[in-house]
Amino acid sequence: MAATSQGNKPYIKDFDPREVLDSNSTAGANIRTSIGELEELAASIGESETGMVQFPILVPREDGTMRLVAGFRRVTAAIEAELESLHFTVRADWAHLPLTDIRAAMIVENTHRKDLTVKEEADAYAQLALDGMPVAQIAKATGRKRDFVEGKLALSKLTDDKAIQLANENRLNPEIAAALQEFEGQPKIQERIIRKVGEYTNLGRWGGEHIANAERAKQQARISTAERMQELRQGGAVILKKKPENFGHSSREADVTTLRDADGNSLDGDKLVFKPGFAAMRDSNQGYPRVVIVCLDPEKHGYTRRSYDRFVTDEARAEEERAEAARTARAEALAAAAQVRHRFYAETYGNARSKLAKAILAQAQRLAAMAPGSLSFYGDGNRLVTSISGTDPDTVTEATSTDRIHRILIARYVVYRERKLTAAIAYDRPDHEAAAWLDQLVAAGYELSETETTARATLRGEHLDTADPRTSTDDHTRPCPQCGADIDEWCDDECALYDTSDEYEAAPVPDETVDDPGDTRPPLAVIDGAPDTDQDGETADPAAQPDHLPADDQLAHAA
């Protein structure tokens, strides 16, 4: 492909694109390295009357051949479209220009096209710099600002595939590229920067500045920490090579900044680090290294820890383990006792005609009248009702017998009391109602296990100091520290310091004929397929029940 002399003015001439490409196959002047979407471009060139709006540019060589300086992709696309001839713009006026100026012209031409990758453009600027062109001259030749050129030069030095991908997606700005170059030879830092950039879809200049500056700060912290550790080592301080396990949470060792002396004063680590019982170590918080002065045994020195430090001494840990073992054993013992208690319920209250069951029925009827929602259960509670009554409560219909309904009602009441007992034992604090239920079971023939006996003592409050805790004259001048009772009052019933010095009396088991002394109406009866009525045929009125007491106290009152 020989050049035709037509002076120094640009002109248009047709050439075979294959010949042009062959003569430029090893040309180093063309900046394009990625072909990209050729099929779409080839189709548009093949279908268009003119083929393209802007023609590829050729520059005559001294040997008479042509150098392709712009349009490499379009020439390749023309070959894909099987075109035998293609219009080219021949820039004879560039023939005398040095290679750097030609490359600058190529940059100007290519950067106006969307198909040039960011990395290719950056490499073009880098080539100009390698040719010896100063940054200011590159900026002038390409019509760009100096900082823009410097950013492109930074991007040209990217070697990481992920970074190059982000750059080509316009997600890696020059500030980040400069930071990557700044940390050349430190791949871990570069990987962190690239990973952080990858978390953003549209990172601007200042976002890039934040990421870069954060790494610079970490780098400075690493340098200053290394210098400080060297000073401490030379001064004779003990250096910990490894951070103690669970340091700052449950380790014996502690950061001196978290300790206080006997007077509540903060400690000066710089003064203590060279003394026995202290050491220094390198720690890292979110990637920022620092020097930590450590007290190896704060309790030995009489220091106190901040509340969030969960360290415990060996003695305290052993006591905790004993207490935990005791809690586990208690829970297992209570679970085993509950299984026996449930069998007792089924055998004792499963027959609605027994004297004990009838006594429960009276209590159940009253609770059903006053608080029917208390007798509704799901899951385990419903299964226990079925176990005690021998019938599934969900299968009750209008045809269900009175005996069966009574058994279900009795079972519901027993489960109600059982659940309240279980909750009270779990809280492990005084609860008179729960203790009364255990007493009622004992009166019915049940024998308490050792764990249940201990639990009943707790429910009664027998394990507490039964005297008023405010024993001195000074103590009686202030409210109770537990419940706030005034000096002329006893503690509230719910107070853990509540006086339970009087002997606890078990609640009597109601006789089947005993009724509420304040209620002259006959006992209620449940009739199949009909509303609850009394024996005179009048509809039972729950509002007629004593309403000045809570539901549970009304039951006790009725008993």
UniProtKB/TrEMBL annotation:
Source superkingdom: Bacteria
Gene Ontology process terms (BP): chromosome segregation; positive regulation of sporulation resulting in formation of a cellular spore
Species lineage: Bacteria, Bacillati, Actinomycetota, Actinomycetes, Micromonosporales
Protein name per its UniProtKB record: ParB family chromosome partitioning protein
Cellular component annotations (GO), alphabetically ordered: chromosome
All copies of domain ParB-like N-terminal, residue ranges: 14-111
Annotated Basic and acidic residues bias: 459-478, 549-559
Keyword Acyltransferase part of the UniProt annotation: no
UniProt keyword list: Chromosome partition
Region (Disordered): 454-479, 502-559
PANTHER family per the UniProt record, alphabetical: CHROMOSOME-PARTITIONING PROTEIN PARB-RELATED
Keyword set includes DNA-binding: no
